[in-house]
Every structure is written in C-alpha cells, then in structure tokens.
Amino acid sequence: MLTAENRARWRLAGLLSPATLIIGLFFVVPLAIMALYSLLEPGMYGGVEWTFYPDNFGRILGWADGSNEEFDVVYLQILLRSFKLAAITVLLTLLVCYPAAFWVSRQPERLRNFCLFLITLPFFTSLIVRLYAWVLILRPTGFLNASLQGLGLIDAPLDLIYTEGAVLLGMTYIFVPFMFLPIYASVEKLDRRLLEASADLGAGRWQSFWRVIFPLTLPGIAAGSIIVFIPSLGNFIVPSLLGGARVLMIGNLVEQQFLAARNWPFGAALAMLIMAAVLLFLLLYVRWQGRAALKEAAR
Amino acid sequence: MNRLLGLVGRRLLGGYSLAFFVFLYLPIGLIVAYSFNGNPLNMMIWSGASLDWYRSLFGLSNSLSENALYVESTGQLLAALRTSLAVALVTTLISTLVGTLTALALARYRFRLQGFYRVLLFLPMLMPDIVLGIALLIFFVGAGVPLGKGSIIIGHCTFLISYVFLIVSARLAGMDTRLEEASADLGASAWTTLRRITLPQILPGVLGGALLAFIISMDDLVITYFISGVDSTTLPVFIYGMIRRGIKPEINAIATLLLLASLLIASLGLYLRNRKPATSSDDHAHG
C-alpha cells in the first residue's frame, strides 16, 4: 500500500517525465554533442576525427597557427557585422515601436483593441511571406524601383536589395511585433499622475521624459531588446534573401558549413559562438532584472 | 504656447503611428494586389485582374499560354502542404499534452528541482533556431535517425512544449486553488479533481497553447530546413526554395492564400482569448 506522500511523488514523476525525456534527449543531448563536435578535427567528406582540435575556434578568433588551418579575418568581420546588424535592428525596432506604443495606449478602447489586433496579426502570418514582400519591393525590377522610374525620379534602378540596409529593413519588419508588445505593456502601466506631478513640479517635456517616463518603461525596453536581439544575431533567412552573397551574417556561415562545405566541426564552432553570445546576454539581462527587482523592493 | 506645442505633438505622434501601421501592412497588401495581376510577362505592370495564378497553382486551365506555366509542380506544392499539416497536427498533440502535464507539475507540486525545470523549459524558446537546427541535424545523423516527418516532429516538439507550458502556466497561476482544495476535502480523488475542476478551468489556456503550437509548427522554417529529408519538404521550406530560384507570380498566389489562412486562425485565437470562462465570475461571487 502506497502512502499519500509516495503517491504524490509518483504522480509528480509521471507528470514530469515526458518533458524531461523529450527536452533531455532532443535538446540537451544534441547541444552537448554540438559542443563536442566544435572541438573535434574535421574529417574527410564531412565526417570528424576523434582528436582534440581547438583550431575550429582558432580560425575564427585568430589563434590558428597556420599548420592546420589558416586564420582568416573574414570570419571575425562577419561575426562583428552580425553583432552590429543585430544591435541596429534593436535600435530601429525601438524607434519604430516606442512612439506608436504611446499613441496606441491613449486611444479609446475599441480602436486600441483593433490596433493591438493589427500588431499581433503578423505573429500568425507566415514569416517567409512577410520577407518575400520585401524581396518584391527591393529587387532591381521591384516595386520601389519600378515606381521611382515610372515617376521619372531615377533613370537606372537603384541598388536596394543585397545591401546591409535591406537586411536591416527586413529584420526590423519581422521583429517589430516582438518589440512592440513588451513596450506597450510597460507604457500601459504608466501612472498618469506621475506625469502630472512631474509637470506640476516644473519639469519640461524633455525632462519629464528622461527622468520619469523613460526609467519607468525601461523594463519593457530591455525585454523587447533581448527578444529582438537573440533571433537577429543568428538569423540566416533574412540575409540569405535580402543580403545575398554581399551581406553575410554568421548564420549564413553556419548554413554553408553544414549544407555546402560539409565542415561540421567548424560550423558547430560558429554555432557555439552564437549560443555563447545569446547565453551571455540572457545572463546579463536576468542579473539586471534581479537588481531592478531588489531596488523596487527596497523602495 | 505650451498647449499649441502639445497639439502639434499629438498630431505628429498620430501621423507617426499611422505610418507605423502602413509600414506593417503595405508590403503584405502589395503581395495580395500582385497575386491578382493578370500580366504574364511583367508582374509590376497592372494589366487587369485575373485568377490565372491561382488556377495555375492548382493545375487548372487558365488563360496563360503553355510556356507561361511557372510553377514546378502542383503535386510538389500539395505534398509540401500535406507534410506541413501532418507534422503540425502531430506536433500540436504531443506538445500540448506534454506542456500541460509539465505546467500542472510545476504549479501544483513543490519539489527541489523546480528552479532547474523553469530554466530548462525556458531555454528551448530562447535558443536561436539555427543553433537548435544544426544540433538536431548532428544528433539525428549520428544516431542514425532518418530525416523525414518523424525528425521534424521531434524537432518541433523540443521547443513547442515550452510555449504550451508557458501559456498553460499563466492560466494555472490565475486560477483559484481553493476549488481544488475543496474538491479534495470533499473526498474526490486527484484524478477526479483534475478532470472535473482543473481541466475545465485551464481549457482556454490549453486551447490557446495548442493553437500557438500549431501556428509555429506550420510556419517554422529554420529548424525544419536543417532536419527535413529530401521527400519531406514542408510548405515554408518549399516556398523558401521557390523564392531562391526566382520570383514567379504563383508565389504571390500561394502567399495570399497563406495570409488568408493566418487571418482566419488569428481571428479564431482572438475569439478564444476573449471568451471568458463561464465559471470565473462565479468564483468571485462565492469568494
């Protein structure tokens, strides 16, 4: 006969085991194997040799001595470009969403709900379709060039697609809803009375914004930034459609190593760098959040 | 003066927000418009409305000449759609079940590894697609698992369990636990309490989680791209391939149909979310 406590323990084990099994076997184990691969020597025809081989990282970060692999600065450049484009994407989505979130929060309820529906709709809309729209707009014979030429503003098509600008536009477009919702959540919670108090005490608009509104919406900004930064950094669909061969990001390199060059250990090393960066930013975010919560509690 | 400044500021903000919504929807609107353009030679020049691209998509007769037939094969397209639907249905079933069980475990039991489990369940959502995609590729190839519908389903489940878990957990957190306690006090077994009290209350959360899992599974491109086999292409991977090979008017038609489907699903989701559970108002009355 099982005691009540024992029965509860078995029930808990039963509830947890499916997720433990699936996430353990198909998430934790594959990532561990990927980490192992990144330290093994690439073999012939896409295989691996079971020898320790730090040069996969050396090729990217600069300590390969040339006896096995050459250090090529191009990998570092692509890595830095990925960080740069992801950071600019965060800034652009922020610039696009912040004022709009304020406006939406001040509308009467029905219009506000409709606006929120319009912003959540892209979450349900195929990502590839939304990106394809920008291919249609930006390509040499696309909507923008055709319109400008039709109006007689330009003679020859402009170089729009396959530029960093096109990649930024595409990433901003697909990640705007990710930034909008966290910002909106914190803007909606703003206490109007604080703004009135700040104005009554003689603060100008500018001062009110930077000393009252901005700090109060910072949690939303931080959450939105991290949610946009993570998928931007490792993105390869946007640069492959809108960046072409000219604007490669680290995700494109990973794809090449796995599907074309068949150097899996090197591709795994590149992916490890993406994962390390993401985990580092998450850790910083969680620590910052923890400190902010402590400050709040101490108040 | 300050009032005038305020008025101008509000107008500017309104204009900016209008531009924001135009930015969100103009590109999508263009695809829809182009999909009805009957011009077989230049997509950018309007030459009257036509359903030719839709007809060509499904292999029906149309007014296009034989050599204006662009789509590779209607069969391939429909096969990709079928694969996507099959994968999404199975994935939704598994991840909804497992995600809900896990949410129940973390919300209703106290145990030592609780914090560990919360982090473990968050990570698959935050892991960049490409990292998870190649990790699974290495794993499947190494373990001798053939790439196909099965591998795609496993891949999708690893991160969709987390989404369902999150949504159902939110629902459980907002639920009145006294009802469950009362049920147990009145002698109901754990199973009866779960079936009669807990499940009906969290049902909107479970359905919402299932809907989200279905949508994300149908739309996933990156992870599927790495772990789908030759004859198990899903719809997003198929469309990605089509775009890479060149822009064809049929893509506009497929894209428009997908947009229509997502509008329907989003409306369903909104309906589910806004429908208040019948018991929630009673809770307060008795509380």
UniProtKB/TrEMBL annotation, chain A:
UniProt main location, coarse: membrane
UniProt entry tagged with the keyword Ligase: no
Residue ranges of domain ABC transmembrane type-1 in the record: 79-285
Key words of the record: Cell membrane, Membrane, Transmembrane, Transmembrane helix, Transport
Example GO biological process: transmembrane transport
Cellular compartments per GO CC: plasma membrane
Localization per Swiss-Prot or TrEMBL: Cell membrane
Alphabetical list of CDD domains matching this protein: TM_PBP2
Topology term for the membrane: Multi-pass membrane protein
TM regions (residue ranges): 12-40, 85-104, 116-137, 166-187, 208-230, 266-286
Family (UniProt): Belongs to the binding-protein-dependent transport system permease family. CysTW subfamily.
The protein's name: Spermidine/putrescine transport system permease protein
Organism ancestry: Bacteria, Pseudomonadati, Pseudomonadota, Gammaproteobacteria, Pseudomonadales
UniProtKB/TrEMBL annotation, chain B:
Domain ABC transmembrane type-1: 81-269
Bilayer disposition of the protein: Multi-pass membrane protein
Domain of life: Bacteria
Compartment(s) where it occurs, according to its Swiss-Prot or TrEMBL record: Cell membrane
GO CC, alphabetical: plasma membrane
Chief site of localization: membrane
Annotated GO biological process: transmembrane transport
InterPro entries linked: Bact_Polyamine_Transport, MetI-like, MetI-like_sf
Transmembrane regions: 12-36, 85-107, 119-141, 153-173, 194-216, 222-241, 253-272
Keywords, in A-Z order: Cell membrane, Membrane, Transmembrane, Transmembrane helix, Transport
CDD domains named in the record: TM_PBP2
Family: Belongs to the binding-protein-dependent transport system permease family. CysTW subfamily.
A family per Pfam: BPD_transp_1
The protein's name in its UniProt record: Spermidine/putrescine transport system permease protein
Gene3D superfamilies: MetI-like
PANTHER family: PUTRESCINE TRANSPORT SYSTEM PERMEASE PROTEIN POTI
